[in-house]
Design goal:
InterPro entries: Elp3/MiaA/NifB-like_rSAM, Methylthiotransferase, Methylthiotransferase_CS, Methylthiotransferase_N, Methylthiotransferase_N_sf, NA-bd_OB-fold, Ribosomal_uS12_MeSTrfase_RimO, rSAM. The protein is of the alpha/beta class. α1 crosses α4 and α11 packs parallel to α12. It binds iron/sulfur cluster. Iron/sulfur cluster binds next to α5.
Length: 471
């Protein structure tokens, strides 16, 4: 008789917050999987629920507390981890029955809490670490964290006090992880850290030997070049996307890699403001550089480059004049993608002590003005892509509705035609990072699957998205 395997305990996971928190969740799940756990897609089937929280803004904290409350009500056996884990008293005061609270990056502590809450059943047949770990993101794209912490002390940010100073991972270890991800089906690597351009500073940009021979320097440009040389099992070059890059002078040296196609022509630079006065009081890094001139030079060298950024409006002391400076700057910079935030004081941030807070209604009005301007710029930029053929990475494909449920499309004569023409898919261009940028919606996308690279003829555009057909 075949051996009946005992069923392993099941863990539910709720992951809140930024992509960096998502990477932490993935690491925790990898460890739990290695310890013989299964994942539960719902509260009911979970022996224990892990909530990975975000504590960056007060609103994020509230969202984290709500998620914990929901997990407590639905399941009752809850372990909390992540940034808000630094405020264990707040969590325990509200949810005295919580099983454990651990802070960010305390992987061992989280795993131990789960081991205690739902002890694993030893299983000689199943206890193997899967090659690639268990991932929350779709298999075709993966976040690659290259460092933790940050050496800056921006006035509105509490990340350094939570995560500490910059601690870069060794470049050979990052490359090994990237190779495994790509071998396991990743088509796009999203390089993340608090400050990507500072990568390697703490390692003094030392060189490390590579298994394949040669060596690699702990430096953003060198790492990006090596990542760009990876090949998928199908022989494609995976997309390498750089996030959270500050415009230090050496950023100029990754632009040629973009022009060569080794790294996506995409830069996510959180400028946060443009007014020198506000940038100074924000204590932002690299704000002295002549950014507009640099952007123009990057575009000259790599015309395809898409620049994404985020901005804070209503920072203490921001006058109408400072704000107008930002709008004029945005008009000139013509950034491809822009996110805006209304300033929110975070407990423990230096900015809270600054004078001249901006009234809420003024913040709101400025926020609307930034969004209107940047939506208009985005719409114009996307409209210019109509008629062009672009590369797209497919994220999801529409399910075919069975004939009885197919919507009535009277304009198609043959029932099969309605079916056929309905097949669509959604993907992203090189200018679109998952979840934060736009999408490309395809019609007549037969035979495609998530993770496919496809050429698309752009037929239409709106403020954020493109619409097209496989070329
Ligand atoms: S660069 Fe500034 S905003 Fe970014 S993590 Fe460091 S301190 Fe925070």
């Amino acid at each position: 008789m075949a051996t009946k395997l005992p069923s392993p305990p099941r863990v539910g996971m709720v992951s809140l917050g930024c992509p960096k928190a998502l990477v932490d969740s993935e690491r925790i799940l990898t460890k739990l999987r290695a310890n013989g756990y299964d994942m539960s897609p719902d509260y009911a089937g979970a022996d224990v629920v892990l909530v990975n929280t975000c504590g960056f803004l007060d609103s994020a904290k509230e969202e984290s507390l709500e998620a914990i409350g929901e997990a407590m009500a639905e399941n009752g056996r809850v372990v909390v981890t992540g940034c808000m884990g630094n405020e264990a008293e707040v969590i325990r005061a509200r949810f005295p029955d919580i099983l454990a609270v651990t802070g960010p990056q305390q992987y061992e502590a989280v795993v131990n809490a789960v081991l205690e809450a739902a002890p694993p059943v030893p299983n000689a047949y199943l206890d193997l670490v899967p090659e690639q770990g268990l991932k929350l993101t779709p298999r075709h794209y993966s976040y690659l964290k290259i460092s933790e912490g940050c050496n800056h002390r921006c006035a509105f940010c509490i990340i350094p006090s939570i995560r500490g100073d910059l601690a870069s991972r060794r470049p050979d270890a990052i490359l090994r992880e990237a190779e495994k991800l790509v071998a396991a089906g990743t088509k796009e690597l999203l390089v993340i850290s608090q400050d990507t351009s500072a990568y390697g500073v703490d390692l003094k940009f030392a060189s490390y030997p590579l298994k394949s021979g040669g060596e690699v320097r702990a430096h953003m440009t060198d790492l990006a070049r090596e990542l760009g040389r990876l090949k998928t099992p199908e022989g494609d070059t995976p997309w390498v996307r750089l996030h959270y890059v500050y415009p230090y002078p050496h950023v100029d040296s990754v632009i040629p890699l973009m022009a060569e196609g080794l790294v996506l022509p995409y830069l996510d630079i959180p400028f946060q403001h443009a007014s020198p006065k506000i940038l100074k009081s924000m204590r932002r890094p690299a704000n002295e550089a002549k950014v507009l001139e640099r952007i123009a030079a990057w575009r000259l060298e790599c015309p395809e480059i898409a620049i994404r950024s985020s901005f804070v409006v209503g920072f203490p002391g921001e006058t109408e004049e400072d704000f107008q400076y930002l709008l004029d700057w945005l008009q000139e910079a013509q950034l491809d993608r822009v996110g805006a935030f209304r300033f929110e004081p975070v407990e423990g941030a230096a900015a809270n002590a600054l004078p001249d807070p901006v009234p809420e209604e003024v913040k709101e009005e400025r926020y609307q003005r930034v969004m209107e301007l940047t939506a208009r710029i985005s719409a114009e930029k996307l409209a210019a892509k109509v008629g062009k053929t672009i590369d797209v990475l497919i994220d999801r494909v529409d399910e075919l509705a069975p004939p009885s449920e197919a919507p009535d499309r009277g304009h198609f004569d043959a029932p099969h035609a309605a079916h056929h023409h309905d097949v669509g898919a959604t993907g992203r261009s090189k200018a679109d990072a998952p979840e934060i940028d736009g999408e490309v919606h395809l019609r007549d996308a037969h035979g495609l699957k998530p993770g496919d690279f496809v050429k698309v003829l752009v037929e239409e555009a709106d403020e954020h998205d493109l619409y097209g057909v496989p070329a």
